[in-house]
Write a structure and sequence with these properties.
The protein contains 12 helices and 9 strands. By secondary structure, the protein is an alpha/beta fold. The protein has a 9-stranded mixed sheet, with helices on both faces.
Length: about 290
C-alpha cells in the first residue's frame, strides 16, 4: 500500500460533508478513541478552522454556512494499525457546485485532480431524498381519499427539480468519462442523517434499493467499474440546534450528556452498528 493513496469526499447540497469533517476531526484526535484509522497530520487546511468546526459539533450546534465558508479545502493524513498512510481530502467543492456539474454539464478544471481520486466517499442525505412524483399516483391517491382530482398548473422543467437519484447516477457516470476516466475506482456510499431514516427498520442496502432504485441498479449491475459499498451514517446522532434561532431541544441535551462526544456517531454496516467513523475510509484503502 502506498502513502499516496488519495480519497475525496463529495456530496450534493446539505448532504453532511461539513458535519462529517467535524466529527472525523474530533474522533481521530479524541483521547482514548479506538478507530481503524488514526490521525497522522494535516496536509492542507488550518487547525483553527477545524477546531472551530469540531467545537460546534461537540456543542450540538449546526454548522452555519457563514461560519464555515472559506478555508474549506482540507486534506488530512490518516494511518492504519501498521502505519500505512492515506490522504483524505475534503475539497473546496460545495454541494451546490457539485450539483451544478450535473445541471450545467460543466466541470471546474481546478477540481480535476480531486475528482480523479481513485477512491471516493459520496454522501447522500437520507432525509432529503427527492423521489420521483408521478401524476397517475397523485390522481389515484386523491381518488382513494375521496377529495377529487386537484387542478394542477403545468410546471416548466428545471434541472434542480430532478430526483436525487437521477443527479447522482449521472454525476457518477460523469466521473467515469472523459478527463475523469481513470478506470475502476472504489466508492463508499454513505446515507447520512441515518438517525432520521433508521426508524424505517431497513438496512442501508435496503434503503438504497427502496428509495434510490435507479442508483441501486446502476451500481449493482456494473455499468461502470465502481467497487462499492453502502453504509448508514449519523455523524450528529440526532437533532442539532441553531443558536441564531435560540433553539433548544431535549434530544440535543441528551447528546451533550454522553460521556464521550464520539458516542453520538452511528456507522451502520448491514446490521452492525459502531461509532468508528473511519471504517468506510479504511474499506476504501483495503
Amino acid at each position: 500500500m502506498s502513502s499516496e493513496i488519495h480519497l475525496s469526499i463529495v456530496g450534493l447540497p446539505s448532504s453532511g460533508k461539513t458535519t462529517l469533517l467535524a466529527a472525523l476531526w474530533h474522533m481521530v484526535r479524541e483521547p482514548g478513541s479506538i478507530t481503524a484509522l488514526s490521525f497522522d497530520g494535516l496536509s492542507h487546511g488550518n487547525y483553527e478552522h477545524l477546531n472551530a468546526l469540531a467545537k460546534r459539533w461537540r456543542s450540538g450546534n449546526i454548522q452555519q454556512r457563514t461560519q464555515v465558508s472559506g478555508a474549506r479545502d482540507v486534506t488530512m493524513r490518516l494511518k492504519d494499525a501498521v502505519g500505512q498512510k492515506v490522504q483524505v481530502s475534503f475539497p473546496d467543492l460545495p454541494g451546490e457546485d457539485f450539483a451544478r456539474m450535473w445541471e450545467r454539464r460543466e466541470l471546474d478544471k481546478g477540481m480535476l485532480e480531486t475528482l480523479k481520486a481513485p477512491a471516493l466517499v459520496l454522501l447522500v442525505n437520507g432525509d432529503t431524498i427527492k423521489m420521483p412524483a408521478w401524476v397517475v399516483d397523485r390522481i389515484a391517491m386523491s381518488k382513494r381519499l375521496g377529495i377529487g382530482v386537484p387542478e394542477m398548473e403545468p410546471t416548466e422543467w428545471s434541472a434542480d427539480l430532478a430526483p436525487t437519484q437521477v443527479k447522482i447516477v449521472d454525476l457518477l457516470q460523469m466521473l467515469m468519462s472523459g478527463d475523469l476516466d481513470i478506470g475502476g475506482r472504489r466508492l463508499a456510499l454513505l446515507i447520512s442523517a441515518w438517525d432520521k431514516v433508521e426508524g424505517d427498520g431497513l438496512t442501508p442496502a435496503e434503503i438504497l434499493e427502496s428509495k434510490l432504485p435507479l442508483l441501486h441498479q446502476y451500481l449493482r449491475y456494473g455499468r461502470d467499474p465502481w467497487t462499492w459499498h453502502v453504509w448508514g451514517l449519523s455523524a450528529q446522532g440526532g437533532v442539532y440546534e441553531d443558536p441564531e434561532k435560540n433553539e433548544s431541544f431535549p434530544e440535543t441535551d441528551k447528546l451533550r450528556d454522553l460521556e464521550r462526544p464520539s458516542d453520538r456517531i452511528k456507522v451502520v454496516d448491514g446490521l452492525a452498528v459502531s461509532s468508528d467513523i473511519t471504517k468506510p475510509l479504511q474499506w476504501l484503502i483495503s
